[in-house]
Automatic annotation (TrEMBL):
Residues 35-256 form the Solute-binding protein family 3/N-terminal domain. Keywords: Signal. This is Transporter substrate-binding domain-containing protein. The keyword Metal-binding does not apply. InterPro entries: Solute-binding_3/MltF_N. Belongs to the bacterial solute-binding protein 3 family. It comes from the Bacteria.
Amino acid sequence: MELGIQGKREDIVLMRLFKALSLFICLGGQGFATELKIVVSQYTPPYVFEDGSGILLDIVRTALAEGGYQVKPIYVPIERGFRMFADRQVDGTTIIQESSGLQAEYSDYFMQYHNRAFVLKSSQQVIHRIADLGGKSVIAFQYAERYLGEEFARAVAGNPRYKELAQQQSQVHMLLLGRIDVAIMDESIFRYYHQKLIAERQVEPGQEVISYDIFPPTRFKAAFTDPAVRDGFDKAIALMRKDGRYEAIYRKYTERYFSVEP
């Protein structure tokens, strides 16, 4: 009798161990997300920070997590990112348009930059339209001629005082020091670096800057090698917009870096 009871107890213990093992395997399978190498622009706060945070990274990471993917950001210059994607060294890239010519599975538009022309008020520069940039000393972000359209390309064509810089803090710094007439860049990036330079005492805080809204927002897509990943990304972005998570990401960084003193 005792042997029978002992055998039943052993069966119960084994059954419990089996169930526990099955649960562990199940949960473990869910916990190991597929890693995706995704190209993002180099340090462009508040969209991309070196520590892996930022508006862009948070949006992309949240959207791909819906499909069970984990993002490994690849921080490279724009042109190198294109080559890496074309060579299939990465699984996706961000902040891109189909006009890039890359053969890829493009997402819907998922975010935008709003580029403006910034001038010092003291310089008395007035810019009502893109053509007004002609003849002025202008510094824009890298590949601005490609993204800002034909009218902009014509306005700066042949202008020896037009330059493009990858380091956007330098754009803001040069403008605030009065070394250039116009800086062209995304409004959020400008505001971040403006406040950073003031906080670091590299520029005077009292300088008034005027921004001219002469460019329409530049909308961007993401691109992937796998159409299934693209489809999941689009669905997740749509859901994030609907349930408020998309807006919450923007609000988090706006409140952190652009708070207005009463």
